## 1
Amino acid sequence: MANETAQKIGPVILLGPPGAGKGTQSKRIAIHYGIPQISTGDLLREHVARGTELGRKAKDIMDRGELVPDDLMYGMVADRLKHVDCSKGFILDGFPRTAGQAGWLDAFLEREFFENSKRCSPVVIRMDVDYTQLLLRLTGRRCCPTCGRIYNLHFQPPRVDEICDLAHGSKLVQRNDDRDEVIRPRLTAYEVQTKPVADYYQAKGRLIPLNADRPMDEVTADLLALIDRCGAPAASGMTKSE
Ligand code: AP5
């Protein structure tokens, strides 16, 4: 969808464990509303690929399946959210991931975006998926290094084995942290450090749980309906970046 037809929907936050489908669904939501998907995992992987100072600090931590310290995340996220393309709304995929990050985000949104932060609270949706299904999704995931499309060898294989359907001839790759020995620490980090984020939003009456253990199209339809219902009224308060 072109920018001029982008709708204002306010921020959307997708929470959920590794493999819940946050990236898959964020991309669909982004296209539907014409707003950017902001994946902190993708941003960090770009820093690693470019060999920036942040990337050098983050690489080993990510390879171990642990969370990058909060203070390293804030500058990167703030820079990205200040881009003009975020003024009509954005989808956060992978952030916030600790209670500290959630508090920081609320303060940042109030300072940078909203005149009336209560009216413009983000839509926070937690995507719930069974543990065994998560393991299948993570071990089967393959990504196109050219166009970023996500596949799954079990549930959504490419037409030609290991080759992207869209980017001609690109061979699909497995993410470094989708190796067996890294998956479990990632799931543990979610249980210990990211579940409190859901508690944070629950306490503020903002958490919407969604059963994401269903076919992708069904999950997409429910997400769009939730965002249409909960996101639209927030838009008029997004002012400073417009
Ligand atoms: P990040 O890149 O954010 O990874 P993650 O949260 O572990 O999530 P994933 O990308 O693994 O899963 P997803 O929910 O996006 O699932 P996807 O749609 O791909 O983070 C990586 C690392 O960066 C972290 O470990 C940490 O070190 C660091 N980091 C990032 N953010 C941070 C932060 N805020 N603070 C600190 N550190 C941070 O789907 C998975 C698979 O399932 C795919 O193959 C897909 O095709 C398939 N699938 C999706 N939906 C369905 C469905 N409905 N049915 C069947 N298959 C499905």
## 2
Amino acid sequence: MKWLVFICLLAIGSNAFTTRQQRKFPDDFIFGTATASYQIEGGWDADGKGENIWDRMTHTNPTVIKDQSNGDIAADTYNNYKRDVEMMRELGLDAYRFSLSWPRILPDGFSNRINDAGVQFYNNYIDEMVKYNIKPMITLYHWDLPQKLQDLGGFLNPLFPQWFEDYSRVVFDLFGDRVKYWITFNEPREVCYQGYDTVTMAPMLNATGIGAYLCAKHLVLAHANAYHLYKKEFAGDDGVCGITYSVGWSEPLTDSKEDEFATELMRQADWGIYSEPIFSESGGFPKELTEVVNQKSIEQGYSKSRMPEFTQEEIEFMRGAYDFFGINHYTGVYVSGTENLQEHPVPSMHDDINVGTSVSSDWPAAASVWLKQMPDSLLNVLLLIKEKYNNPVIYITENGWSTRLEAGLVDDDRVRYYRAALENVLDALDAGVNLKGYMAWSLMDNFEWMQGYTERFGLYEVDFEDPARTRTPRKSAFVYKEVVRTRVVDHEYEPSSMTMTIDEGK
Ligand code: PNW
């Protein structure tokens, strides 16, 4: 009897131990990696591609990029797409998220003239993935607007939602037979706020305090146009369409009323302004931010609020226009309404919300100044979105860590970051978050926007000095591959060699 009790206890003990250590990702959970067209493709003027806003900015104003580089060749995926797919197979990926270059398909931005060579390139890329059972997940817009549309005001032109719908129709029609996952926009905050307010991304248009809000209005309307078009004419039974936000974790510095309110405003300015019209039950722009902007606008002598309005019809049209919520997540900050405040241009979105942010020196730091490893930030974001928007389907569409080139192939800090993030994914699944997939940023090193090639996010290193743009797996690639293969995060796993192979029959 004593022995039986002992054996039973042992069994319970070891069981508890295995469940804690060996929590598994569900079989249908989708693992992938992500990239974006301008960051990897190159072929900037190949075979009839039109100019985009990053071509224009880097060619006319090269010093805005840290190493004065550009995406003219980048990782040359235009000529290396088969190698890219080979890497996806090496990693054993279920899916691959990439974006389309709008002007590679429509050189003038408008749908009257289609560039066949550009279409052929994407057909080849998609077919190669599908051949090996890798699900393509396409982002329609990841920041490389046709310059011809920028010349007409870009996102500030009220016709933008129509242009975007026309472009969407062309690509749904061309690729919708093989592609079942669509993301309309990557990170509206970066598009609108950085492009039209803080002047820190192309088109670097100085329209502070007005541009970002106007851009937000047209962007969410454009999203809804594309979403409804897709569902009505292309989706069939299994096609899904969503939008991806950069959602950092904003945490009140203290539990004071001021810090709580500042945190709410910061969340609304970062992503709520782009997500509330689509995901909230009430629809339209978020209430607190709208009130702050209304009030400041009047104080500043404007005849009307700088925050644009929607008609009731537009509000209804946008509300619920989604199949999933895409999250790009990297890090977080503490937010205060009274501490760390800074001077900002007036008017500007920064001045409107007027909050101070800080980080902890205990958090490990990446190569990018903004990127720290804040504990449990991903879990907190997932729980917030679950609660806020009635448990929507969520995909993590980006998550990753930057190193410098000199750091080499043994990227233990990236491995540590990914393992912590993937534990958060398991925690979220345990908590009932409707999370369906995870895309690591990035499959390979690429053009890191204003930082050029000085910061590396790849599971594969890319040699940008080499005309062949040779790709070599880092340690993190082997670790990620093991997670995808076993569906478990094994903190002890060490690759036995740095040679990659393809496991056939997956
Ligand atoms: C994303 N932040 O941008 C973009 O979607 C990618 O194109 C980019 O390469 C990647 O992250 C790494 O930077 C972000 O400050 C830029 O929190 C900044 C932040 C988040 C995402």
